[in-house]
Amino acid sequence: MVNRPSEHGFVARLDPLEPVAAGVVEPPHTVILNDGSAPGREVYRIPEWTVVDAGEPRERCEVVRITDRDPARSRRVVLAGAEVFAADGVRLDGVAPIVAWLRRRGVEFADFTVEPGERALRLVDVSCWPGHRLFADREDEVYAALLRRLAS
User: How many CB atoms lie within 10 A of CB 117?
Assistant: First the structure.
């Protein structure tokens, strides 16, 4: 386990709204509701986190998270120890405040999604369970970064 226990829990609770309150990022275009009425491109059923077709009608009492993330503008990022990797391999500026927030929470291995906002990046999503598909083409580099952090 790379992410160590801290006062924030064994696996830190990562709320994308927390850095918004600190002025680090702009608020995400996300809503959690139970009437299925909001438009959006990505819909997840809570608590299972299963993907729901955005165009399908939803049950009146179905609790979903709806995000209006623009896939063409959003970027996935993997934090591994002291290093940051863009999932698409293209250099990404402006993520240092998000990385600093994650480190203050005791997180060493995470992935997050950002997209440009008007004044700062918008943190769309964050997880301390990075999927291998995000770094499959840079696997050796990511694991080496994690091993360096564990050895330090």
Answer: 15
Q: What is the dihedral of CA 11, 32, 63, 132, to 10 degrees?
A: -40
* Domain regions of the chain by residue span: 18-23+70-151, 31-67
Does a cis peptide bond (omega within 30 degrees of 0) precede residue 47?
Answer: yes
Query: What CATH class does 18-23+70-151 carry?
Result: alpha beta
CA distances from 39 to 6, 33, 133 (A): 37, 11, 28
Name which of 95, 97, 61, 80 is nearest 140 in CA terms: 80
Residues 104-126: pLDDT tens digits?
A: 888 889 999 899 888 889 888 88
**Mean pLDDT, range 12-23, rounded to an integer:** 78
Q: Please say whether the beta carbons of 115 and 27 come within 8 A.
A: no
The pTM assigned to this predicted structure is: 0.75
